[in-house]
Recover the amino acids of this structure.
């Protein structure tokens, strides 16, 4: 018998920032020492230029307006503007930071992201057998994909978007057809 | 058989903010629940309203409230510009929605609900209420309770008709619209056009509360169907 705590999974499209969530943000402005990021919530989040691994006042990170950043929230509540950082508690970046060039960013519902981030997610395993690709999942519903060619990237994007409404059977059929070609 | 269903998602505008619900009321089905035997089955009109909900999004500084979300309702008629009647209905809808939405969880944000009338064959306000509730449900906003709208027409001889058609509304002595909450069936909003006695209003209210059960069951079935594949 457990402690009696329940997790209620509900379907939403609009993201509400939560402390500790890893999200993909789009840089919209540089205001002095702070970047403004659009994370899909009701307010833009702020990101200090010192919140990157190895960043000092002399050694600033090369961030431009329009760049994609993968970071986590250190401050996120209903009363304050959300704040993000790209380092963890020990000062290492552990996968966070500026997301590289190319690739494709698209939006899905929050429920699908949670499904993809579940420990044993078959979707990602099956897709990785199809083509090699890089994948970044943001809890705010944003996914960034990069494969070798544009066509492969778009195929992966379409499968991920369709996964929300396909059963496991239909997905396996679709992937079998693709790997057959 | 009720033909109402939740429509498809339209393509996301601007930042993927749209949650769309389509509510179709078929008069013939709803008339089966009326207390008086419905005579006109020949008139099969459809009242349908398209609802889109945006939010919680960034609010303009002039409109933001420091402790809760600012809710705004826009009702667009089928033809013409919105007039005084639309404005008064918007206020009724806004007050009903504010009573159920937990706005304190999203201070300094704006929630916009846009309703477009596609066709009007009677009972428009209750159709708008139902569409608004489904839009709130679909968007996943935190709610204290669901609500539904029921229209009662009081005929000259005293019989009560639920969800009247446009013609029945014109012939009726009074039209009463109630918004009923799902928790304990309490009244969230009541509006009357015409004259009726207090007893008659109580009878209409009782009939509306009974009818609300069917509408809430419909909500449940629609949502179940919508998420059955996830």
């Amino acid at each position: 018998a457990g402690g009696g705590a329940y997790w209620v999974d509900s379907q939403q499209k609009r993201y509400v920032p939560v402390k500790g969530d890893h999200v993909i943000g789009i840089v919209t402005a540089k205001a002095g020492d702070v970047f403004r990021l659009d994370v899909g919530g009701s307010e833009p989040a702020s990101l200090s230029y010192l919140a990157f691994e190895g960043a000092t006042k002399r050694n600033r990170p090369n961030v431009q307006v329009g760049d994609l950043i993968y970071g986590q929230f250190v401050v996120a509540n209903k009363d304050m503007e959300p704040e993000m950082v790209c380092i963890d508690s020990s000062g290492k970046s552990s996968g966070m930071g500026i997301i590289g060039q190319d690739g494709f960013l698209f939006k899905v519902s929050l429920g699908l992201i949670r499904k993809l981030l579940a420990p044993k997610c078959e979707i990602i395993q099956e897709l990785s057998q199809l083509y090699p690709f890089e994948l970044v999942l943001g809890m705010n519903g944003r996914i960034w994909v990069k494969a070798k060619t544009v066509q492969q990237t778009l195929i992966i994007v379409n499968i991920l978007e369709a996964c929300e409404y396909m059963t496991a059977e239909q997905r396996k059929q679709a992937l079998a057809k693709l790997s057959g070609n | 058989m009720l033909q109402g269903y939740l429509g498809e998602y339209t393509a996301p505008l601007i930042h993927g903010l749209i949650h769309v619900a389509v509510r179709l009321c078929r008069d013939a089905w709803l008339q089966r629940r009326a207390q008086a035997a419905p005579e006109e089955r020949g008139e099969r009109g459809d009242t349908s309203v398209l609802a889109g909900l945006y939010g919680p999004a960034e609010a303009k500084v002039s409109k933001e409230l420091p402790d809760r979300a600012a809710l705004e309702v826009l009702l667009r008629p089928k033809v013409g510009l919105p007039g005084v009647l639309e404005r008064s209905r918007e206020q009724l809808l806004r007050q009903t929605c504010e009573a159920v939405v937990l706005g304190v969880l999203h201070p300094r944000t704006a929630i916009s609900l846009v309703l477009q009338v596609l066709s009007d064959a009677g009972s428009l306000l209750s159709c708008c209420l139902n569409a608004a509730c489904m839009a709130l449900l679909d968007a996943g906003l935190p709610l204290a309770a669901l609500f539904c709208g029921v229209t009662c027409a009081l005929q000259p001889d005293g019989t009560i008709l639920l969800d009247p058609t446009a013609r029945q509304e014109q012939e009726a002595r009074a039209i009463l619209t109630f918004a009923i909450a799902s928790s304990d069936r309490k009244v969230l909003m009541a509006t009357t056009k015409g004259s009726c006695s207090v007893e008659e209003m109580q009878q209409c209210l009782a009939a509306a509360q009974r009818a609300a059960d069917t509408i809430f069951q419909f909500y449940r079935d629609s949502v179940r169907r919508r998420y059955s594949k996830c």
User: Anything to note?
Assistant: The first strand of chain B starts at residue 19 and ends at 26. Confidence is low (pLDDT under 50) at residues 1-44 of chain B.
